[in-house]
Amino acid sequence: MTRSFAFAAAGLRLAWRDQPNFRVEVGLAVGALVLCWWTGADVVPVLAMTGLVLALELVNSAVEGLVDLVHPERHALAAAVKDLAAAAVLVAAAAALLVGLVVIGPPLVATLTAAMGGG
To answer: Is 47 helix (H, G, I), strand (E, B) or coil?
Structure first.
C-alpha cells in the first residue's frame, strides 16, 4: 500500500510540474475554498467538484500521454480519444462553475453587502 501512495504522489508531482492546466485548476480550487471559508458557504459540494475536476484532469493527462506514446503521428481516432478526454474535463469544470455560483454566490453577495455597510 505504501508503494501505491508513493506512485500516486509521484503522479501528482508530475502533474504539478508538467501540466499547466492542473496548476491553474488547483489555484482556482484554492480560491473557491478560501471564498467558502470567508463567506461561510457549504464547502462539501465545492470540495466534491474540485476533486472531480482535478481527478479528470489527471485522467485526461494520462490518456493524452498514452495516446501520444502508442500513436505519435497524427491519427483521427487518436485525436478523437484525446478530444473526448478533454471534453470530460470541460464538462466537469462547467458543472463545478455552476455549483460554485450556486453555493458561493449568495453568501458572497451577503458578505460583500455587509462589508460595505448595506445590511
So the answer is: helix
Contact 60, 85 (CB under 8 A): yes
Global pTM reads 0.92
- The active-site residue out of 25, 57, 64, 73 is 57
Residue 119 pLDDT > 80: no
46 with 103: CB under 8 angstroms?
Answer: yes
Task: Specify the CATH number of the domain 2-104.
Answer: 1.10.287.3610
How far apart CA 14 and CA 48 sit, in angstroms, is 23
Cα gap 15→8, rounded to integer Å? 11
d(CA 50, CA 30): 9
CA 17 → CA 12, 40, 52, 56, 88, distances in Å? 9, 32, 20, 17, 22
- For the segment 61-81, the average pLDDT, to the nearest whole number, is 96
Could you give the CA distance from residue 23 to residue 28 in angstroms, rounded to a whole number? 9
Residue 57 is among the residues annotated as catalytic for this protein = yes
Sorted by where each begins, the domain ranges of the chain are: 2-104
